[in-house]
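Chapter review. Work through the record for Glycosyl transferase before attempting the end-of-chapter questions.
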Amino acid sequence: MADFHQNGHVATLHNLRVDKADTLERELEVLSAHRKITLILPSLYSELEGPALANIVEQLAGARFINHVVIGLDRASEDEYRRAREFFSVLPQEHSILWNDGPRLQAIDARLKEAGLSPEEPGKGRNVWFCIGYTLARRDADVVALHDCDIVTYSREMLARLVYPVANPAFSYLFCKGYYARYAGGKMNGRVNRLLVSPLLRALEKTIGHRDYLTYLAAFRYPLAGEFAMRTAILPDIRIPSDWGLEIGVLSEVWRNLSTRLVCQVEIADAYDHKHQPLSEEDPQAGLSRMSIDICKAVYRKLATDGTVFSQETFRTIKATYYREALDMIEAYHNDARMNGLHIDRHVEERAVELFASNIVEAGHTFLDNPMETPFIPNWSRVQAADPDLMRELHEAVKADEAEYGR
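Structure tokens for Glycosyl transferase:
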């Protein structure tokens, strides 16, 4: 049975396995009549051919509490866009597909580029950002949820538990983050969260001293979870990072904009598995190596905006402190895995820690060498101020694609 511990910083809503999932869903169906719920699915076309998305769509087909599904489709040709429309046509809910590589949305992007407002690099952050703009343009969502399209262990209960805390008007939460245990195939997973983020936050506090922001991040059981939900009212002022620091960046924006009393985390699954990235020790621009650098930079940037001064010596100290913390945590994870019949390869774990330790310094060098770097995409309030017609035209572009290529 799950615990019911509260950390005192962010409310934690556990799954005590007492009530049945269908009870939550029935209640959500009632609530959604007055508080409309939109789900955003950022997707690569290749994920339509993967092992996870067909089951996700099948599960979503029974989610009567969802009012609208917004699919951001990346890396798709015209024929692939047509096939995507057929693939998602089984959804009974109203749904929209943003063909991000299509001529109409490319024209919108070109217009944003002229104004200096376009996302600078492709990826999940850019995809999510356009989906948010489109959702705001529709003006028919009170709650917006987001999750990835590669969740192998997906069930409708995950979504119900994710949206319930912000959909129920009796709760005060405006933002909800999902969490879960990452294991599959007899192995304990989630290396970046376990072996980078957790020990890095401890190392930062030891090195630079107490920061409320670090305490806030450490309060989340899985800060890198890609599943979150929020009231639509906070979306216009959320800045989305364009790199792999998306999840940490969103949490940082929530920290900046909201009281922690309005933030919660909820246990959405007993076990969770999705696509695993390679460590990419030889290529710092790919896999977990790139991810670790982007995450570190996201944390450093936020601390700097709160007045923390960094130097090369600071990052060397953070690295040394992190390395000791991470090795101690490997021992704890190894013992935890053994007690639960799971496997951890300590050699592989230590290799990952060595890479992350190196990338902590590399991210610091990049941070110091590029003080003018602005990785955040402008929020939609700024876009609206700069070009008041753009959101409406984004909405019309998606409708025009639908009309031209047919339902």
